[in-house]
Amino acid sequence: MPNPTAAMLVIGDEILSGRTRDTNTNHLAQALTARGIRLQEARVVADDQGAIVAAVNALRGAYDHVFTSGGIGPTHDDITADAVAAAFGAPIDVRADARAILEAHYQRTGLELNEARLRMARVPDGATLIDNPVSSAPGFTLGNVHVMAGVPAIFEAMVASVLPTLTGGDPLLSQMIDVKRGEGEIAQPLKELAQQYPDLSFGSYPYQRNGAHGTQLVVRGTDAAQIDAAVVALSRLVSQS
Amino acid sequence: MPNPTAAMLVIGDEILSGRTRDTNTNHLAQALTARGIRLQEARVVADDQGAIVAAVNALRGAYDHVFTSGGIGPTHDDITADAVAAAFGAPIDVRADARAILEAHYQRTGLELNEARLRMARVPDGATLIDNPVSSAPGFTLGNVHVMAGVPAIFEAMVASVLPTLTGGDPLLSQMIDVKRGEGEIAQPLKELAQQYPDLSFGSYPYQRNGAHGTQLVVRGTDAAQIDAAVVALSRLVSQS
């Protein structure tokens, strides 16, 4: 069975202005790889309804799963829930189940559930809530789109609660060899080996450390025995060439 | 004059597998903001010709500039130059000017300019070379697409040589206020102020530090006096509400 596919959609002006560095994509990428789901694309768009709707519709049609991060807080620039509803043509309003979660949270903390905070209970019809163990305001899954918070601690907790509910594939395995040579010298044997093992992918990542050139060679795939064999062949080739 | 727009396209399986964390987008975002060019979208795609061609064509049609990072080294998975040429329908081959740069570099370093390394001189017809002061192999600009290396030190050097050649806009300015309150309490005054200043953008970024909630409020725009006025009004509003 082929591995399921996924895309990440990061939403937020602060990423595009350079103010904030996105760390959620890397976290999701690692979690999906471990679960055997292939992250095939990531996008960052601004807090703009048209841009979010277009990206959600392009990605949910192309991949098995879409994960979004950002734009589900209480302020005027938090428009992700409404934009995702619009992308699906689904009605959206404050929903009783989400409202009950917020009421319990603000009662516990002694703060007021004001109109702005109540916006965090806006959930499209037909969506399933995603638990937020950090600050209560839930995310949601609508169709194949998982809508999650941008704050990394909350995003990561939501990923942890969503991933076990998804059908994974064979784990995506990898092995790495570190070669103390420039990649230009090992490109030819690497290419030949890649042709010999069409089910594996071979990556080559040059680096420079203390003035010396080196290359990390990474072999990826789902068949552990095949990866082992390729790594043995690769080690032999790069020591000869 | 409106600010020019841009998109970033990161190319590489290693970003999508989670092995490598992309830092080039954040670097470019900051450099463009300082130059008055609005980064409006970023994408990450795999080392896959079809995916690269589709993304290049979508982005170059939608924005004034496209910056790519990754996939221009000597190995079989470095297919960005050929994919960009295909996106434009431009012929591509080893080009004399790029070859001369590599020949001088490898003569200097005493290494062989083998067939794999010569692939780094593949440049589409009509493209202008981008200088690589770190490891010589050039990037290139074709139309409104700037093709650069993935290794951060080289990417950053190429950005530094390309940006001064582009027409910038009014610098994108921002000011930040740190408020020791949750964003749910200041969402209403923030929304009202955003309506009052339609040319500015107001961002709200909650954080938690040592158990205390706080919010960073960011006002962005190109008119320094307007930003000053909005920040004064904002400070007054959040201390009252």
From TrEMBL, chains A, B:
Pfam families from the UniProt entry: FLAD1_M, MoCF_biosynth
SMART domains, A to Z: MoCF_biosynth (SM00852)
Location of the MoaB/Mog domain: 7-169
InterPro entries reported for this sequence: CinA (IPR050101), FLAD1_M (IPR056596), MoaB/Mog-like_dom_sf (IPR036425), MoaB/Mog_dom (IPR001453)
Database matches in CDD domains: cinA
Name of the protein described by the UniProt record: Molybdopterin-binding protein
The organism's taxonomic lineage, starting at the top: Bacteria, Pseudomonadati, Pseudomonadota, Alphaproteobacteria, Rhodobacterales
